[in-house]
Design a protein that fits this description.
The protein is α+β, with helices and mostly antiparallel strands and about 170 residues long. It is built from 8 helices and 3 strands.
Length: about 170
């Protein structure tokens, strides 16, 4: 019986793009990553500072994809993430019912579709002009989630004369 030498039995064919007889760890250590990689820069003209748009997309924010924000359809009880509105942007419409969508902000978390009380509380907030935009230090702040919290704040606003939008976002009522 002829047995294969131990060297041939343990070696496997090289993976595509990998040099023969070198493992992945060795390959990662030798290969530079980023703009200093000659394979990434493309050639001497691009290394001299004349970078193409393909080389820019990974490192410069002007080439990155834009973030998305939330829009809500109250009749359908659905929310959609779509790109931020631009200067020449058209009004967004719901893909289910063709009603206009309401821009609620990027820090919005939609309630479940079957939770009608939460959607009623949300509709009161949106009709009062309250939105869910992020601030510089975190999320949008306090927003009431239940109808009882909304009723308390609206009663407080009626009693004190404070605007509804301002009373609805109060965390604690005096």
């Amino acid at each position: 019986m002829n047995a294969a030498p131990p060297e041939e039995a343990t070696t496997s064919p090289p993976r595509r793009g990998m040099p023969a007889k070198e493992g992945p760890a060795r390959w990662r250590q030798e290969r530079p990553v980023g703009r200093r990689d000659p394979a990434f820069a493309g050639g001497p003209a691009q290394r001299a500072g004349n970078l193409s748009s393909q080389a820019l997309c990974r490192f410069y924010p002007s080439r990155m994809a834009h973030g998305k924000t939330s829009y809500v359809c109250l009749p359908c009880r659905a929310s959609y993430k779509q790109p931020y509105p631009g200067h020449h942007d058209h009004d967004r419409v719901c893909p289910r019912c063709a009603e206009p969508l309401i821009h609620v902000g990027s820090a919005f978390a939609a309630p479940r579709r079957r939770d009608t009380a939460a959607w009623r509380a949300l509709s009161v907030l949106l009709h009062a002009g309250v939105r869910f935009h992020k601030s510089c230090c975190g999320g949008p702040g306090y927003r009431p989630r239940t109808l009882s919290e909304v009723r308390e704040r609206m009663a407080y606003a009626r009693a004190t004369g404070e605007p509804f939008a301002q009373a609805l976002v109060r965390r604690v009522l005096p």
